[in-house]
Amino acid sequence: NNCLGTIYENKNDFKKAEYHFLESLNKKPDNLGVLQRLVKFYKDRSQYKKAIQIYRKIYTLKPKADIIKEIAILSEKIEDYAEALTCYEKILEEDNTRYELLFNIANLSFLVGKPYDSLYACKLGLNIFPDNLKLLLIMGKCYHAIKKYKKAIMSFEKGLEIDPQNIEILRNFIRLCEETGTLKKGLELCKTALKMGKPDYELMYYLGLFSLKGGKPDQAFEYFEKAGKLNPNGFEVWYQIGLYNSSKDDHTKAAACFQRA
Questions:
Q1: Mean of the pLDDT values across residues 90-115?
Q2: Which of 90, 53, 51 is nearest to 68 (CA)?
Q3: Stated pTM of the model
Q4: What does the DSSP 8-state code read for residue 81?
């Protein structure tokens, strides 16, 4: 039946292929070769939930960390971050020195709303890999999320010391500056980011916000207009343009902008 499954798979008759693979599994439920062939079949079809079920069966027969890692990777693909995190944490019990593992735990913990767990993984990782930009970025994002702004700034600044043109760190530092009202630094970071490539919506929008908070509404309006051209669906920027037009008593334009927002 396993051979029949392969024959039908090669003919692109995937329904019959799956039927015969499952028939093989029914006859030999503990056969690792059959299980591994079936898990490959599901992965090749992007049927990740079914692949995870088979991996769990394989793990009961062969409890290896590599199997847990495969379950974690597939769980990420279906955006089941909590399950992926559980898998990585299980591997961490056996080995807490692997960068990839610590990064995945840090990243997933942040994604599922556990910034303190993420920080723990970041600190473990940075003790071993002190100049790792990805861990410094996540650490900064975590400190930002829990409103420990000075520590967030330190994390982002250290990252930029290592790589002054790291666009992800720059963007997250810019967002932090906007939230904390650090206008001069925010403008400086925006200009650094702009030198690295074409202007984009987010950078123009933040340049507008920094200019507005710095008491330069006309300059802010110019940035907001540029942002609006780059992304006509950016509701935040149309709201700001509406406010500007309203301040100039151009209520018709203001109403049109608010409607777009």
A1: 86
A2: 90
A3: 0.74
A4: H
